[in-house]
Design goal:
By secondary structure, the chain is mainly beta. It has one domain. It has two helices and 14 strands. It has helices at residues 17-20, 110-118; strands spanning 33-39, 44-47, 51-52, 59-60, 64-74, 77-80, 83-86, 91-97, 99-100, 107-108, 128-129, 136-137, 150-161, 180-190. Strands 1, 2, 5, 8, 13 and 14 form a six-stranded antiparallel beta sheet that branches. A two-stranded antiparallel ribbon has the order 3-4. The longest helix has 9 residues, at 110-118. The radius of gyration is 21 Å and the shape is globular. The termini are far apart.
Length: 195
Amino acid sequence: MSEDTTENRGPVAVDLSADMERDRTFGGRVPRGTYKLRIVEEPDFATSKEKIDPKTHQKKGGNPMLVFQLEITEPTEVVVDGDTFTTGGVKLRTWATFIIDNKNGLERNPTLADIHKASEGKLPARFLRDMDTGLPINDEGIPIAYTGTEFWAIVDSKEVDQRGDDGKVLVNPLTQEELRGWQYSFGRIFVLQSN
């Protein structure tokens, strides 16, 4: 339970009426466009799923990657065809996958390179990855901090069925409507080109 830290220590007024009457039709949709994103927590290390290519029967995937949690900071609202969409604070995720450069044997990561370049010198172009955690570290072994880093990118959303673990579409038990939600996609990161 949260504690009221105001000096008054009296009851705190709460008004839920606006939230209860909000139009849920457009809630969650992010119209395709350019948005300023902020990294809201340090990335998690993961490994991409391995798949077998049905044509070549070769393994694909199994690559190390960083999973970033992001939120839209600008614009906070977008108007499309007279409908207003609240975009500020929408959370999304992106994966920055490491691949081995066949020419020199070093790891590359195009998404992470764009995030570092968009930081305008705050994040290094070269670093190490900790063997235990898989996370980027500097020469002294200190983890590279990403929280608060902001950049502009293309974001879009697509309406999808909400499915249970059994693969069946979930249903609202009150209305029997099939449940839908929004899946966000993350595109190009905009960076200043150096001459």
